Amino acid sequence: MNRLTFVLLLGVAALLAFVEGRGIIREGVFGTRIDVLPVLVTYAALRGDLYTLVGFTCFSGLLFDALSANPLGVSMMSLTLVGVLLIQMRGLILRNQVLAQMALGTCVSTLNPIVNLFLVWALGMNPVVGWGSIFQIGVMGISGAILAPFFFMLFDWLEAESVSYTHLTLP
């Protein structure tokens, strides 16, 4: 992943963290929110290195926590944990296959709220959890499966276009 793609990834993360933290797209799908940051973490983990991933998760997780009701740092920890798991298994994953991207989007979008929930419980807080939470996590997983190939194609195209220029020679 080149620097321009990383900066664009941070920009999209900042925009989506604001949209998700303010709850703008919360009531659109079955009364639950769509979490896009885990899909972006999937892209950063599979296309970048560990430093790129940690920088991205620190930025996006802290920004999301600052704009939402989450305790500060919980989203950062869960996104980093999920991303490091992906980096550890990166050699086994078929990164360029759409079906694998959909499966990873589902897994990461489902695993992230569960890790978030356990971290909030570990901090001694009592989040509201019920049978509806299973439905909401399922909707988040399905939305991750739908959005993952889109973001992979978008950022791969941006990376290909940003390095496809030709150098000018001076006369």
Task: Provide an overview of this structure.
The protein is an all-alpha fold. Helix content is 71%, strand content 0%. The chain has 6 helices and no strands. The chain has helices at residues 3-22, 37-47, 50-67, 74-88, 98-122, 131-162. The longest helix has 32 residues, at 131-162. The protein is globular. It starts with a helix and ends in a 9-residue tail after the last helix. The mean pLDDT is 88.
Provide a quick synopsis of the model.
The protein is mostly helical.
Specify the overall morphology.
globular
Rounded average pLDDT: 88
Class from secondary-structure proportions? mainly alpha
Q: Let me know the largest β-sheet.
A: none
Provide a count of the helices.
Answer: 6
Distance between the termini: 33 Å
Number of strands: 0
Task: Tag the structure with descriptive keywords.
mainly alpha; globular; 171 residues; single chain; 6 helices
Secondary structure blueprint with pairings:
Blueprint: H1 3-22, H2 37-47, H3 50-67, H4 74-88, H5 98-122, H6 131-162
